[in-house]
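Regression test case RT-17, inverse folding.

Input:
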């Protein structure tokens, strides 16, 4: 194999197969192209422990005059290699007429449904697909230009579930580290005859235009662009995994029987607010767009502002313009506000701070020192809101968040040595935020008596 580093291919394939279930039958989707035949040959002849586990499945979409012949070639090759083979035929054009979807999306959906049904019929534990690194780069680029969020920029996952009726079947992609040219060279060197799908040259399909036109142009300007896309996808995947874990924890707090509890939801960082809203929509609707999520977020924010303006207590009863002193531990009373403060510690402070509702706050005790001062806000007050690059006037923050005059008149601030740390119900200061390194924090909380008023 003069043009192919076989050891590198085998090493990356071995890494890719680590995602496979250790036991049980595996359905390998084979189209007759280089990628899927490379996967099948690597599993059959180069991967230990696969004897008796592999079953070949091919889906005839009926879109080309030669599609039936292609399915028969796959069956013949599977028989030659001593593996069972299953064929499922689907009518893509009929479904397109009924549903009004594109040929690409309809074919993909029917293909996955057929593979899932075949896998269930034979008791398989996973479906294996031959997607390559080129497929991954194309997917990430397509998602990028569609304005996808972080999850879309991760591209295809090495393992992801696909619904099959009432069940969920894992799809595995062991070749995401191999380039398309490598799968073709591997097949040629191994004497495996493959067929190029003519539809892959049809520029009617968006993915083909990306592969044939856009990516070569980008690579001509930016050497190694495809590798950079994959690297970005891996970085996005790590970040998405972390945010997904935080979102799962946040949902345990902010979920209500009829959706999301607005006060608790509003206290989440912007990313988690968006993700919890999106997850809720995914449970209710089949096709959720980013615009639909943004619409729901805007509705929740608007409803919350209306509730705030109607319910926050007045501070007109204050007798001191400087407010009151709050010790830690201790309590402070201003008008109808009852604010408590305690010192807490532990390795989970960041998680607790992340899911805290808008009427409690965690301040890094390494940054903030007691005692604190609690007072009404004044014209000219400034703070650096959580996540903001610099200091801003409270008045400007209120304008951005559409805080009305009645609400502004009722707001209080918590400060230390002239630095505003928290505006309850509005925002926390960036300087006081809890981080992964925080081991002690000051926990501030408005007592349940105020929550009764807010309800």
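Golden output:
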């Amino acid at each position: 194999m003069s043009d192919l580093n076989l050891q590198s291919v085998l090493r990356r394939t071995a890494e890719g197969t680590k995602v496979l279930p250790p036991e049980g039958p595996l359905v390998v989707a084979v189209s007759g192209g280089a990628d899927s035949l490379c996967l099948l040959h690597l599993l059959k002849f180069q991967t230990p422990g696969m004897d008796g586990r592999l079953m070949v499945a091919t889906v005839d979409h009926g879109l080309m005059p030669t599609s039936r012949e292609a399915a028969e070639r796959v069956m013949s090759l599977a028989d030659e290699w001593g593996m069972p083979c299953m064929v499922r035929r689907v009518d893509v054009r009929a479904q397109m007429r009924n549903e009004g979807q594109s040929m690409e999306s309809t074919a993909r959906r029917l293909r996955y449904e057929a593979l899932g049904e075949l896998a269930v019929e034979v008791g398989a534990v996973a479906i294996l697909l031959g997607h390559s690194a080129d497929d991954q780069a194309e997917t990430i680029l397509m998602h990028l230009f569609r304005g996808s969020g972080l999850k879309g920029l991760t591209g295809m996952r090495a393992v992801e579930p696909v619904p099959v009726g009432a069940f969920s079947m894992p799809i595995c992609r062991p070749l995401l580290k191999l380039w398309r040219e490598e799968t073709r060279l591997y097949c040629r060197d191994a004497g495996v005859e493959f067929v190029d799908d003519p539809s892959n040259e049809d520029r009617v399909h968006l993915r083909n235009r990306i592969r044939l036109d856009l990516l070569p142009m980008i690579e001509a300007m930016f050497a190694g662009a495809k590798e950079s896309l994959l690297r970005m996808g891996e970085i996005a995947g790590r970040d998405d995994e972390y945010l997904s874990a935080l979102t799962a924890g946040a949902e345990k707090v902010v979920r209500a029987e009829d959706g999301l509890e607005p006060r608790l939801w509003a206290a989440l960082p912007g990313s988690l607010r968006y993700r919890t809203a999106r997850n809720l929509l995914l449970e209710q609707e089949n096709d959720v767009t980013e615009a639909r999520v943004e619409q729901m977020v805007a509705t929740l924010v608007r409803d919350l502002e209306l509730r705030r303006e109607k319910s926050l207590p007045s501070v007109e009863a204050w007798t001191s313009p400087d407010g009151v002193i709050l010790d830690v531990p201790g309590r402070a009373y201003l008008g109808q506000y009852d604010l408590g403060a305690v010192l807490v510690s532990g390795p989970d402070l960041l998680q607790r701070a992340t899911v805290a509702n808008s009427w409690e706050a965690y301040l890094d005790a390494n940054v903030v020192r007691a005692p604190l001062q609690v007072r009404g806000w004044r014209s000219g007050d400034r703070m650096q809101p959580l996540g903001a690059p610099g200091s801003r006037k409270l008045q400007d923050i209120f304008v951005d968040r559409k805080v009305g005059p009645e609400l502004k008149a009722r707001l209080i601030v918590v400060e230390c040595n002239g630095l505003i740390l928290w505006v309850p119900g509005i925002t926390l200061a960036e300087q006081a935020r809890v981080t992964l390194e925080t081991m002690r924090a000051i926990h501030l909380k408005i007592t349940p008596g105020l929550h009764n008023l807010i309800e």
